[in-house]
TrEMBL record:
Name of the protein in its database record: Uncharacterized protein
Upper classification of the organism: Bacteria, Pseudomonadati, Pseudomonadota, Betaproteobacteria, Burkholderiales
Species of the source: Duganella callida
Highest taxon above the source species: Bacteria
């Protein structure tokens, strides 16, 4: 995995985590729908090869 791909992957994970935190802080249907849509988009990208998920990830 290239550094660029790893950076893209890291940014995607950060965005998903932020959306989940927002939902946890302010639960509601709109926030839940946003979290589910984000997770589905991530899963679809991984399945279709749009994003490479590293087998192991280490934060520096």
């Amino acid at each position: 995995m290239s550094k660029t791909n790893r950076l893209d992957w890291s940014k995607q994970i950060t965005l998903m985590n932020e959306r989940i935190k927002h939902f946890q802080a302010n639960p509601g249907q709109e926030q839940l729908d946003a979290v589910i849509a984000e997770l589905k988009a991530y899963a679809d990208a991984a399945r279709n090869g749009g994003i490479e998920i590293p087998a192991r990830f280490t934060v520096n």
